[in-house]
């Protein structure tokens, strides 16, 4: 068995695939095909949900609840998501995309060797892509808005600004037309040279700076693409966005808009639920909505 070929980096939402295997997992059926347009949720950093949609053979259709990561060992061991016992790239394992059905058992027509039509829920995919691109843009705008609060070298983000995102982010959850990111403002960040007291005292000002920057970027209508090192799910992928300040490039396995012209607006709110935690909520208004 070879690694699954994926076409979602090119924006595809439809395609054909040959069923490789069908498995049971947690009361659901999971179908593996040799090629798919479905983007799976990444079990190691599950920021973007997996695609939903359908698998069809002739007049028969079954719903895919979510695409997931899977892997099979040379000894035949099959694992899904968090149950995968090895890291990516470990010799002796093949990486796959599984399609978790909205059913406990796969229909009888869905068996190894048949060629099926796969179709992603386009509306949901596009909304998640907007949410993911906006999430990256918001993190870059956040880095820029707090750049002068660093007293030590924090490393550089994709635009060359101090990397608050990389230093402090502890979780990111993307949803349709938005995202929620949580940052840790603890002792380790202060030791790294970040002035948390000045930040919390000027939270409203920082939020206004971020939103002003996001308005400029959304209005620019810049190109946004996914670059890949190959066609397989295991191959490295990067998001590139041609902003007025220069190209922002970062490793990313998710899906994205093809142009910032797809946004009418992007905005964030900053909240401090406790002195050690920053929550940034990103919201999108789609162009033409």
Relevant terms:
289 residues; alpha+beta; Elongation Factor Tu (Ef-tu), domain 3; Threonyl-tRNA Synthetase, Chain A, domain 2; 5 helices; 16 strands; 39% strand
Secondary-structure topology with pairs:
Blueprint: E1 5-6, E2 14-25, E3 28-33, E4 35-36, E5 53-57, E6 60-73, E7 78-80, E8 93-101, E9 115-120, H1 122-145, H2 164-168, E10 169-175, E11 178-184, H3 187-191, H4 196-201, H5 203-220, E12 224-228, E13 237-243, E14 246-251, E15 263-274, E16 277-286
Parallel strand pairs: 1-4
Antiparallel strand pairs: 2-3, 2-9, 3-8, 5-6, 5-9, 6-7, 6-8, 10-11, 11-16, 12-13, 13-14, 15-16
Your description of this structure?
The protein has helices at 122-145, 164-168, 187-191, 196-201, 203-220, and strands at residues 5-6, 14-25, 28-33, 35-36, 53-57, 60-73, 78-80, 93-101, 115-120, 169-175, 178-184, 224-228, 237-243, 246-251, 263-274, 277-286. It is α+β, with helices and mostly antiparallel strands and 289 residues long. It has two domains: 5-120, Elongation Factor Tu (Ef-tu), domain 3; 124-286, Threonyl-tRNA Synthetase, Chain A, domain 2, CATH 3.30.980.10. A six-stranded antiparallel beta barrel has the order 2-3-8-6-5-9. A four-stranded antiparallel beta sheet has the order 10-11-16-15. It has a three-stranded antiparallel beta sheet with strand order 12-13-14, with no helix packed on it. Strand 5 (53-57) and strand 6 form a beta hairpin. Helix 1 (122-145) crosses helix 5 (203-220). The radius of gyration is 21 Å and the shape is elongated. The termini are far apart. The model has no long low-confidence stretch (mean pLDDT 97).
